[in-house]
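Quick one from the shared queue. A colleague (R.T.) flagged DUF177 domain-containing protein as missing a structural entry in our internal table.

Convert sequence to structure tokens.
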Amino acid sequence: MNPQDFKNQPKKHLIGQIENLTKIKLDNPLIKELIKVSYDVKLEYIYDIDAIEVDGVIECELTAFDANDGHEFLYSAEIEWNDEYSFDQKANDQTNLILHNNFDLQAYVIEQINLNIPVNLSEKHAIIYKVGSNWEFLSENDHMKNEEISEDLDPRWEKLNNFKSDK
């Protein structure tokens, strides 16, 4: 869609699916393939700043490899999409620039998926820590237990207080 399309029809409500998902490659190496991508977005052209405001939801299903143990699993996400895109190169730094005067909805939907899929994608949402020279994998429960333990007072402080009071 080019700027003239938006000037002719400033408000659009688009609902659809992206086809030919096998040709699309996502940036995250843990993602094996996209299964389904659908969107429900409202586009509104803002004349004053020559920009498009996008508000909607992207739903995607994909097959991924677990960052912890490498097994395949099905991942689905519902991504809230609220952003601004501008045809004007002099737009503010908070607005995304539309290149070649062409708003390619499919490309921007895929971009949003790339931006919102976790880098360390895991089926169990485990937290990965690097400890020393080895990696340590912690489930969320283990992480919470470690946090609780670390919040306990170190017994050496009590010994220090006793040492000070002895003098």
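The longest strand covers residues 31-46.
The chain has two domains: 3-116, 127-166.
Added to the table.
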